[in-house]
Design goal:
Hypothetical protein af1432; mainly alpha; 0% strand; 2 domains; rod-shaped; binds fe (ii) ion; 318 residues
Length: 318
């Protein structure tokens, strides 16, 4: 903009200078070759002035203006071309986003169908006391909501992840489908082999769920979360758990939360191999295992929510 103003100034100065110089030259010539009649003098004045000023106008005004106009037209054309390309890109991007949305919706629907199917299998094979998978789902959700409120596990519990976690909770023992009833329902003490067979339900669960996983790239999070919970809910904070003996934060947070929910329900329920613990005994046991078997943060959340655990347990027995 300032360059254009400068060239206009130069053109104005050149024009004024040309007119002044032209007038001086004309006056000198008329005096030298005169006197002329006023009409002849006026005509000669005009002709000479045009002859002197015209080249200046062409050189200082017309040519630079023509050049500016050309570059202006060219840049306007380029701007329009850029806008056209951007419009085309936008249309392409929108079409791609539509396709992605469509694919994600399809995958989410298939995942939900698969989840419903797996859930009904888990419910049909609920080998523990009746309703274990439903109660643990409730306990897990209570703990997850409290932990988020306390500001813990932001990555595992952000946005819709608690809803996902709650949806997949009933699948934590899905691997028990691969454990014979004779072992699962055995009332007496287990042999080492039988114990190992039961412990394998974590890995069996992982492989059942992995087979149901469609594509990691477009995974809505359901199946991958279910795998973490099924594979890790018997891991223990001090590394004494199974199947991998993971230690502390190496255990997925989702599985650390499920561990407390699962153990609470196991203790307050009657099983073929154990008596039913009271709520108070169970709270004392879980509390004493804080930082040993269980993540201290999860135990803190449990202690704040223990009244709600008792409520769920009581409702289930009613
Ligand atoms: Fe289990
Ligand atoms: Fe369980």
């Amino acid at each position: 903009m300032s360059a254009r103003r400068h060239s206009i100034k130069v053109a104005v100065v050149a024009l004024i200078t040309a007119i002044c110089v032209g007038e001086v030259v004309i006056m000198f010539l008329l005096d030298r070759f005169g006197p002329f009649t006023p009409i002849v003098e006026a005509v000669m004045d005009s002709v000479l002035l045009v002859a002197i000023v015209l080249p200046v106008v062409i050189a200082a005004i017309y040519k630079p203006m023509a050049r500016n106009l050309d570059s202006l037209i060219e840049s306007e054309f380029l701007v329009k071309e850029d806008e056209r390309i951007i419009r085309e890109d936008d249309i392409e991007r929108e079409a791609l986003l539509d396709q992605l949305d469509h694919a994600a919706a399809k995958i989410s629907a298939r995942e939900s169908q698969m989840l419903a199917l797996l859930n009904s299998l888990a419910l049909a094979k609920d080998h523990e006391t009746g309703g274990h998978v439903i109660r643990t789902q409730k306990y897990l959700t209570i703990l997850a909501l409290r932990l988020r409120e306390m500001g813990h596990f932001p990555k595992a519990l952000e946005g819709g992840r608690i809803e996902i976690l709650s949806k997949v909770a009933p699948l934590h023992d899905i691997g028990k489908m691969g454990v014979p009833d004779a072992v699962l329902k055995k009332a007496g003490a287990l042999t080492d082999d039988e114990r190992r067979t039961i412990e394998a339900h974590t890995l069996i669960g992982e492989s059942i769920l992995s087979a149901a996983e469609f594509d990691n790239f477009v995974d809505g999070g359901l199946i991958s979360t279910a795998i973490k919970v099924a594979g890790g809910h018997h891991e223990r904070w001090n590394g004494s758990g199974y199947p991998r003996g993971l230690l502390g934060e190496a255990i997925p947070a989702e599985a650390r939360i499920m561990a407390v929910a699962d153990v609470y329900d196991a203790l307050v329920s009657r099983r073929p191999y154990k008596r039913q613990w009271t709520h108070q005994e169970t709270v004392a046991e879980i509390s004493s295992m804080k930082g040993i078997l269980f993540d201290p943060l999860v135990v803190d959340a449990f202690l704040l929510e223990e009244a709600n655990f008792l409520k769920v347990a009581a409702e289930s027995r009613a």
